[in-house]
């Protein structure tokens, strides 16, 4: 399958990571038929640009779509796509699995990524699973605590001093020279893996809106591509309205969209509790902007207080997500959607990864002798 630049349109036969113009590349849209099968990889077998290494799957994907009560007061039907149940507790595993299937077939001995959070843990875990070495490049400021969840899988964690934004491009260049396959936030195979979220949603409901927490833009592009391929294959009647959700304190894509720009500019001094979506200079930002404009989709920002509130409400329904993953539900009340519409919010990652900021309740103390009182 050919790779295509969504911005300038140039195509490539070889598996490049980015276009010469600097923008991300993606596989040409695929049209086809699903099969009957146990996993999303099998049901949509023809839709992946590389054969998934099923024998090495850790069970990523096929996550629950949970009917929520949280839409009731707003008069909408809300569904939660619970990606927190993936093997390393975020949707990143879908993309990592497919990208590693490619790396294995191309006989790479090592893979890498630039991340401090969920993607780092995911690549570290799957590299071990696939028997490959992992080089995880993190910023100087990454805390030891966060890196434990990465290094536990055996990945080699390297703290890099210097400009974190440049690290993304530098890693691709050096990786190519040194034979390390870098699976960064918008690697084309990673994007393909994320299509599965759209496929699974469409198997259960036909949503009017899909709320997508957005940082680098990889997840948004993947879900968009999934729905577009279903539509072009005649498997769904129309496209849902996709809504990119960003934290107010780091919203370069929404800002550029609002100002009618075609290029995203660096967001200075990002500040939000939603660390997993705080990329100030998103590598797929321009590609997301193009999709938003082309399809008449939307971009919405939410404040840290709104995020905390949504996180608490979700926990009150039994699902504990990290702040970044609560942004979709936080955006719900700002959107003023028509009554009765079906909305899916993507719960991208687990709250157990960010216990420090969790909206926990006060714990009561009780001497055993007074237990009867305490229980009453
Ligand atoms: C990576 C991530 C996102 C955003 O995905 P992008 O592809 O960077 O836009 C959202 N939420 C969580 C929990 C993530 O780990
Ligand atoms: Zn290009």
Automatic annotation (TrEMBL):
Its cofactor is pyridoxal 5'-phosphate. Coiled coil: none annotated. Belongs to the threonine synthase family. This is Threonine synthase. Keywords: Lyase, Pyridoxal phosphate. One of its GO terms (biological process) is threonine biosynthetic process. Its EC number is 4.2.3.1. One of its GO terms (molecular function) is L-serine ammonia-lyase activity. Pfam families: PALP. Residues 57-349 form the Tryptophan synthase beta chain-like PALP domain. It comes from Thermococcus indicus. SUPFAM superfamilies: Tryptophan synthase beta subunit-like PLP-dependent enzymes. The lineage of its organism: Archaea, Methanobacteriati, Methanobacteriota, Thermococci, Thermococcales. The modification N6-(pyridoxal phosphate)lysine is found at residue 92. InterPro entries: Ser/Thr_Dehydratase (IPR050147), Thr_synthase-like (IPR004450), TrpB-like_PALP (IPR001926), TrpB-like_PALP_sf (IPR036052).
